[in-house]
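Thread title: Can someone regenerate the structure for this chain?

I was given the following input by a collaborator and told the matching structure tokens would be attached. They weren't. Posting the sequence so someone can regenerate them.
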Amino acid sequence: MTKSQLIESVTDQLIDQQPSYKKRDVECAVNALFDSIKVALINGDRVEVRGLGTFRVKQRDARNGRNPRNGESVDIPDRKIPFFKAGRELKELLNQN
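Best answer:
Regenerated them for you:
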């Protein structure tokens, strides 16, 4: 699902409950949510969404790698990566028979 598809889906669900909401309002809310998660991760904070999971930043240490084209050794610097861990409720929903 793309971001625009997510906005459409949320808009369709909200219009049934609150006809006053417009697609533009939903788009602003979705963008604000994503921006808030980004800012929290940039600041090193953890974001927990109950029933969905946890977003956090992991630190990868520097290491030596290989260039696949010529086999030369390449130094890979340490870096931060975003990490998502699914929550128990989401895992249970996915594994229902």
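The chain has three helices and five strands.
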